[in-house]
Amino acid sequence: MTDKLVQPFSQKRTAELAENLSAGGEVKGRSLWADARRRFVANRAAMASVVVLVLIFAFSLFGDHVTQFDNETIDWDVMGSVKELGAPSLTNGHWFGFDESGRDLYARVVQGSRISLSVGLVGAFIAVMVGTLYGSVAGFVGGRVDGVMMRLVDIFMSIPYMFVLILLLVVFGRSISMLFVGIGLTAWLDMSRIVRGQTLSLKNREFVEAAVAIGVPTHRIILRHIVPNLLGVVVVYATLLVPQMILTESFISFLGLGVQEPDTSWGALISEGVKSMNYGTLWQLAFPLCFFVITIFCFFFIGDGLRDALDPKDR
Amino acid sequence: MTEQSPLLTVRDLKVWFDVKRPGAMPWTPVDKLKAVDGVSFDLKPGETLGIVGESGCGKSTLARAVMRMVPTEAGQALWLGQDLLEMSKREMRAHRKEMQMIFQDPLASLDPRMTIGQIVAEPLKTHFPGLSTPEVKDHVREVLDRVGILPNMINRYPHEFSGGQCQRIGIARALIVKPRLIICDEPVSALDVSIQAQVINLLMELQEELGLSLIFIAHDLSVVKHISDRVMVLYLGNVAEISEASQLYRSPGHPYTEALISAVPIPDPQAEREKEVMLLDRDLPSPLNPPSGCVFRTRCPIAEERCGQSRPPLKDLGKGQQVACHLR
Ligand code: SF4
Hints:
The complex is a heterodimer of chains A (315) and B (328).
Chain A (H helix, E strand, L loop, with lengths): L1 H5 L4 H13 L8 H11 L1 H23 L9 H4 L2 H4 L19 H37 L1 H16 L2 H11 L4 H28 L2 H9 L3 H37 L11 H10 L7 H28 L5
Chain B lengths: L7 E12 L11 E13 L4 E5 L6 H8 L7 E6 L2 E2 L5 H8 L2 E4 L13 H12 L5 H15 L15 H13 L5 E5 L7 H18 L2 E6 L2 H5 L4 E6 L2 E7 H6 L4 H9 L5 H6 L40 E4 L2 E3 L5
Parallel strand pairs in B: 3-8, 3-9, 6-7, 7-8
Antiparallel strand pairs in B: 1-2, 1-4, 4-5, 9-10, 10-12, 11-12
Helix pairs in contact in B: 3-4, 3-5, 4-5, 5-6
Bound molecules: iron/sulfur cluster (SF4).
């Protein structure tokens, strides 16, 4: 607390302040967001992760324009003898080599990245939206409504979600949309708990009381006071949720229940790579695995950085 | 002054909270915590009423009940004759601009994500939605200037100010809609002593200038001494004494008031050493299970048998002094 108060009065700031005062201009304040941004930018690991992640996103979006191969054409010459002919090579343009059925692995990884990342983002988005809404309503309304809503969450939570997800995929057929729904539906539970807790503590803060005393209508209190103060937690949790979604999808795909050929994802690619590991075509495992691991790490670093930046008290 | 009809009349106000015993079954009846148990007082226009009591005596709850921020069990709070507690939400909202509140923790009462300009403008925007942005800004600058905050600071955030400045901003927020009553809930107890005086002086100046009524809540008598016209002493949700401030300090009526006054340090060290401090030995009893009869009985140095039998009514001792004690 004290260093927070002392900080703003470094010499440079004081000079700035004096200048502003004499000029009679309005002094620009440092919002908590600006503070957080500064702390985040100062966090090297997080900033490096942002850069890497941007590159991976660019790769998944535009990677297929760089190569002359697509992800469907099968090179029949390579097919039977991938180990000898299909290794990665810079000369023939197959930078990541071939997969087991003779397709260009680079194009396949681009395709897989697209699906994995979108599963992660969409899944996290659904979870965050549903969870935030559910949690803040439960927390703000309180009383019996809160009790019923949260007991329901408890019940859902006690069901092993992987089991439910697999059951859904088996019963309703394996499709990407089913995967989205299944993952999104189970992941909002944690979110709603976190948001509810935050809302409860915000509700008792004096500035919310002050708004009530002023006579600000309830919906304005939620929008102007509760939500902006909730945003930090939601953002942090959302960044940590994305890799979790990707992991879940990969695990499901690894089991062979997720995306289906000719679609693919990191999990499916890794699964294929593992199967052919014994034939000595290690690159088939290495490339998708690299992307997968690096992305997960990036998200975790960014999430960590955001948490430190948004809530400096917890460090 | 005496003929003026009161601005706020509170009659037999009760605020009870439901308290669940830990580990209780859902169907077991809840305990009632009597935070405020039958408090009555009048407040005249332009008057300052100090409310004093230990923490947990219900003084903040009383203020919040009048503002309709906590549900009340029974009683009335008449604002110029109209019962605030009976009003619909809409009617109440219209009245809220006439009574504003200042809070104990100055920083915590300001939304950390808003600039002080936005914070101070909020009541204005709520109650006068028709005002244009430049008009709002003019008002904000004016009122900030009045409380001693440089108006060119409006784009700064609360955490960039000191506690005293934050409290000034809180006062500005209360003033901007030109209320007739400001309830100050321990506005200075979180501040340094030197700054306490500044804030109290500011409040007194403003009161003089604008003819405000103030309800000034504090946990010790020394703080309210200078600012109050009358002082109400609360103990466990009950009124122990309501008196003219000068009378109360000269000759406290209730044993509890005596104890509170003896706890106030005297600036003269010689006198301070010689004075007899009346110590209240035992702890405050739980409001969940208050003593029978006079609630002060368990700590009262002069308690008698009849104190446990019936609750003492407020008696008028003359000279504007009302005391709830069997022996006075
Ligand atoms: S009524 Fe009895 S117990 Fe209560 S204050 Fe008076 S003397 Fe003390």
